[in-house]
């Protein structure tokens, strides 16, 4: 009869090393460490346009409302000045017309000057 290899008891931990193993390298899509924060969800673009477009439309609507109010106020003022001249006694009509002309000259100067400059966007300037 041939010699047989002696039977040994099975060792439960075959991976016994003399020193500890280094941690395994991360595999693709394998997370290591702490969970990172999440990025905010970008705003949904509605069919009407982007947020920038909406801001421009809102600003234009505000300018239109202000212009409508300004026009109504100036029309009322002009009607009041015309009524003042029309209802003045005959001896005061010349003075009333001078007041009307002065008022209109001032309004024309005011409307063509500071009003237009305040509604224009300021251009960026370089400063020290």
Structural class: mainly alpha
Helix content bin: 40-55%
- Please, how many helices? 3
Evaluate the radius of gyration.
Answer: 43 Å
Backbone shape? rod-shaped
Q: List segments where confidence is low: pLDDT < 50 over at least 5 consecutive residues.
A: none
Please provide the ordered H/E string of secondary-structure elements: HHH
Largest sheet: none
Estimate the strand proportion. under 5%
**What would the average pLDDT be, to the nearest integer?**
77
Q: Give the N-to-C terminal Cα separation.
A: 105 Å
* DSSP strand tally: 0
What would you say this structure looks like, in words?
It is a single chain. It is built from three helices and no strands. The protein has a domain at 51-117. The model has no long low-confidence stretch (mean pLDDT 77). The protein has helices at residues 51-87, 93-112, 114-119. The longest helix is centred in the middle third of the chain and has 37 residues, at 51-87. The N and C termini lie far apart (105 Å). Helix 1 runs antiparallel to helix 2. The protein has 128 residues and is mainly α. Residues 1-46 are annotated as: Disordered. Residues 1-10 have a biased composition (Polar residues).
